[in-house]
Structures are given as C-alpha cells and as structure tokens.
Amino acid sequence: MKGIWWKILGVLIFIYVLVGGLTVPLKSGITSTDPGNALSGEHLALKIHGYNSHFYSAKKNRAWLKLDSIHALRALNFEVSSENDAVLHFDLPSYFPGKVKAQPLTLILDNEVDGVFVQPNAVFVSVTDTVHSDTIIPSGIWKSADLGHFHEAKSLHFPYRNILNETIRNTFFHVALWFAMFVLLIVGLYHAIKYLMTGDFDHDIQSASFNRIAIMYGVFGIITGSIWAKYTWNTFWTTDVKLNMTAVAMLIYLAYLVLRGSSSDHDRRAKMSASYSIFAFLALIPLVFVIPRLTDSLHPGNGGNPALGGEDLDNTLRLFFYPSIIALILLGTWMASLLIRYQRLKEKIFMSNQ
Amino acid sequence: MNIIKVKDIFIKELSIEYRQKFALGGIFLFAATVVFLIFKSFNNINPREWTILIWIIMLFAGLNAVVKSFLQEKKETYLYYYTLFDPIDMIVAKLAYNFIFLCSLFAIILIFMGLFSGFPVKDWTLFFSGSALGILGISIVFTFVSVISASENGNSTLMSILALPLVLPILLLLLKISAVSVRLLTDTAIMEDVWLLMGVDCILLGAMILLFPALWRL
Fold first, then answer.
1. Which of A205, A201, A171, A175 has its CA nearest to residue A188?
2. Structural domain boundaries enclosing B132
3. Could you give the CA distance from residue B89 to residue B95 in angstroms, rounded to a whole number?
4. Do residues A105 and A172 both lie within one domain?
5. Is residue A322 in some structural domain?
6. Is the pLDDT reported for residue B203 higher than 80?
7. Quick one: average pLDDT of B205-210?
8. What is the tens place of the pLDDT at every residue in A199-216?
9. In this predicted structure, what is the pLDDT of residue A219?
10. Whole-number Å distance between alpha carbons of A63 and A78
C-alpha cells in the first residue's frame, strides 16, 4: 500500500474528471432567435430556440429585451411550445434613446429552473423615425421593465458559451495536458541537471523517461487542441502563434528523441541528451511563454484575450480543471516510473552480460 | 576566462581555415550559386520573397559552414587541446569565430542578392542590428549542436535534425524584424522583438557556456 496510494489517487481523480467533466450539463443558453431584425414601433414576435432550457417545465418564464443599463423592455407574452422552443411577444416602442439608426438589443431570459441566461445582440432594431424621436418625451414603456429578482440555477452547470458549446469540456483535457506536460518536463530537466552534476546514470534514465511521457502529453495536447479548433475555429490548424510555437517546441523535443536513439555509447548518449534537454528547455521558455503574449492570438490569455480567471474559468470548471491537472501529473509520473523500471532492468541485464 | 587565450584560439581557427581554402571557398561558392539559382528561377524577386529567401539561404549555408567547426582537426589533436585550454576559453573563441564567419557569409549573400535583385531595406539600423543579434543566436545554436554532432563522429544529419528546430524561434523573430525593416509590416513595438531576440541570445549563450565543460571531452 505504501508506494501505490498515489497511483490509486491519480486513477480515481481521473475517473472523477472523466465522469464529472463529461456528464455535468451545460447551463441553458439560446442558440437562435428569429427574426434577427425588426422595425421600431412594431409588434415583434420573436421565435427563440433554447439549449438545455426548460421552458415547458418552468412555471415562471420571464423575458426582456435590454438596450442598455437603464432601458429594457419586458415581453408581453411568453408562448411556450416545447422545452426548447418559445415565441416571445414584444411591442417595440417608436422612441429609442440615442440617435443611432440600428440598435442592438440583448435578450435576457429567466425562469426558476434554468436561472437567468442572456443572448447578446439578439435583435437589431432599425429606428424608423429618428427625426421625431428627439421631440417625443420618453414613454413609460421602457420603464415597465423590472429587471431584478432573477433566479439562480439549482444544480451544477458548466457555463454556456456560444461557439464553444459542449466543447468547453475539453478544457479539462487540452489545457490540463499542457500544464501536466510542463510539470513533467521540469522534473525531466531537474534530473538532467542532476545527471550532469553527479554523473549518476540513474538520473539519466529518469530524465529520459519523464521527458518521453511529457512529449507524449504534448502530442496529445496538440491532437485535442486540433480537434477542438475544428469545432470552434472551423479548421484543424490555424496561423495562430501559440499553435505554431508549440509545434516548434514539439519539433525540438522530437529531435531529442532522435538524439537519444542515435548513439550506442551509453555515457556519451546520456551526456549529450542531458545537455540538449537543458538547452531545449531554455529555448522553449521564450517560445511558449513570451512570444505568444506579445502577439495576437486566438487563445485566452494572449493578445488581449482574458486568461484563466474572470469569466473564462468559472468555479464549476475549476472543480474539474485543477483535479484534472493533478490526475494527469500523477498518471504521468506512474507511466514514467514504469519506463524507469524497464530501463533499469535493461541496464542490469546489460551490465551482467559483460 | 582568459582573453589572450581566447584570442590565440581564435587566431588558430582562422589560420586553419586559411590553410584549407577549399572549404572556405566552397561555402561562399555554395551561397553564390544558391542566390543565382533563386534569381534565375524567380526572375523578379519582390521584397517579401527577398526577406524570406535571404534567411533561408543564410540558414542552410550557415549550417554547412558551422558543421565542420569541430571536425577540421583530428580527435587526437583535441586530446592535446584538453591539456592546453580551459573549456570556456575554447567555446567562446569558437563562438566568436563562427559568429564572424557567419557575418561575412551573410555579407556575401547580401552583396549577391543586392547585385541580382536589388536591396529593398528601408530601415538600415533596424535591419543590421536585428540581423547581427539573429546571426549571434544562430551561431550559438549551431556551435552548440556542432559540439554534440562532433562527438557522434560528425554526423551531419544529426546536426540538421537538432539545429533546425532549435533555431526556429530565432528565425521567426528575425523574419519579423526584417519584414518590418523592409516595410512589409508596420509595427511600432518592433523594438520589443529586438530586445526579445537579445534575451534569447543571452539565455542560449549562458546555457552553452554552462553546458560545454560537461560535453567537450566526449
């Protein structure tokens, strides 16, 4: 039991991440609204299609069209046709604050099952008589909206993001794989330095094994990222800096594998690969941490996009994201330890044959 | 580090190079031929192609030039050097030699490119300061990798496999800096990239100086 508890822990956490990360439903959202634009002063029947919503089972469905922080319009009627479909009726006023000819309105829905959810820029309203609008006193219709007393969603949900949709779950795998890869690379680096300082061959075996598993994680990270990109950015590969820089990083480390396979002299190979891996890791730092931050990128945390935190990683995601990193590190260490034992045995046989 | 020793090793490198004129001439001829080949196949090179091609030629000509830097002398000669020199003096001198060699190679490529297809650079200081830093970075990586490949009996395949990915981040920064200096791009924050390049050079230089003593007696 002594040496095995962390392996069991790693497997259990990973099962928790797999099961939880794939079964927890997304928060409700709105996938489409129809029509996309309307005229001011008209009656608007807005067909909405929800995702994971419970219009039918909920009793208190409410909806608003919001213009800005003080102007909002409550739906007159909420006709529910199914759990995910409804028609909202609005009387658009002829008066719109401001002189803009096309006003984007944000749709806000609220019920006691799903909580409150929002579709930005759901309807664009063309203001027909801007000439008169200045002279007319704001009508009471804008004030009738009572934005408040929102419901909270009852159970655990992942955030609903347009475009991302269900793929938000990939955060637990794609992002966590990179974190775990870096931890394993640092362990490999530590052993490489240790080998050069002490000359103990065992450190070389450990360094190589950790680096190998880290490279495997890197390849998995690229594959999961590529699949994710297909569903969100609609292409397997983009010109995004972070993608290309990691590709370079993987090439550097694949060259490491070539180097390890090149020499038959064990001591020479150990020294060469230890030095190369230190050199490669140092070359990697500007590549992965500095350059992407200076240039525009589609990834969060780069080129003005928000990083981990804020709205991108909310508390329900954290509940699985951090355990996923820990689980992957533990599993990686386990895999590396298997490689280490295999290499040690090979070394033993090699030594006893001589 | 002993400056006089470094100078001595540098002069030794230079005289060995001078004695083997065919190697020197071969590399310059290689550069000239490739430039001419590109000129004939493109006929009309626009500034965009110009900046890319100049670095591609530089990369491969430089690779050929540096791969031999630890192979010119016999292994037995190195046994003698072990007793004479400090490893840090040795690597600094080799690096200085390779840097100057690559700079002259770059100058020759520039002259040929200018001769055949014009010289579109607008911002001279940016172009030459960026190029100097980039060539320094390239020579650090190539020198380091040539140490490794020399211990594998001058395996030049190994050299290109190890060196090309390592040199890519430097090359990408260089391409951006030269694109700005040719006015293909406008970037007011280009100095950040120049500083970054200098930072990368410093990190790699430090790593090489730290690691070489462990590597050179392989």
1. A205
2. 3-215
3. 10
4. no
5. yes
6. yes
7. 91
8. 888 999 999 999 999 999
9. 93
10. 8
User: With contact defined as beta carbons under 8 Å apart, do A26 and A166 qualify?
Assistant: yes
CB B81 within 8 A of CB B206: no
What is the model's pLDDT at position A306? 47
pLDDT of residue A130: 56
Indicate whether A8 belongs to any domain.
no
Whole-prediction pTM value? 0.83
Q: What is the mean pLDDT of residues B68-92?
A: 81
A-chain CB neighbours of B144 within 8 Å are 279
Give residue A137's domain range: 30-142
Helices (H) and strands (E) in chain A, counts: 8, 9
Give the Cβ contact number of residue A74 at 10 Å.
17
Q: In a mutagenesis test of the B interface, which of A203, A277, A282 is the best target, namely the one with the most B β-carbons within 10 Å? A: A282
Interface residues of A toward B, Cβ cutoff 8 Å, are 196, 245, 248, 251-252, 254-255, 258-259, 262-263, 268, 271-272, 274-276, 278-280, 282-283, 285-287, 290-291, 294
CB atoms within 10 A of CB B38: 21
CATH number at residue A90: 2.60.40.10
Give the per-residue SS3 of B100-135.
Answer: HHHHHHHHHHHHHHHHHHCCCCCCHHHHHHHHHHHH
Residues A257 and A332 in one domain: yes
Q: How many CB atoms lie within 10 A of CB B47?
A: 18
Query: What pLDDT digit, counting tens, does each position of A23-72 carry?
Result: 888 888 888 888 888 888 788 888 888 888 888 888 788 888 887 777 77
With respect to residue A13, please indicate whether it lies within any of the assigned structural domains.
no
Report the mean per-residue pLDDT for chain B: 86
Tokens of A90: 């609005």
Q: Give the integer Cα–Cα distance in Å for A242 and A249.
A: 10
**Contact between chains at A278 and B211 (C-beta distance less than 8 A):** yes
Query: With an 8 Å Cβ cutoff, are A276 and B162 in contact?
Result: yes
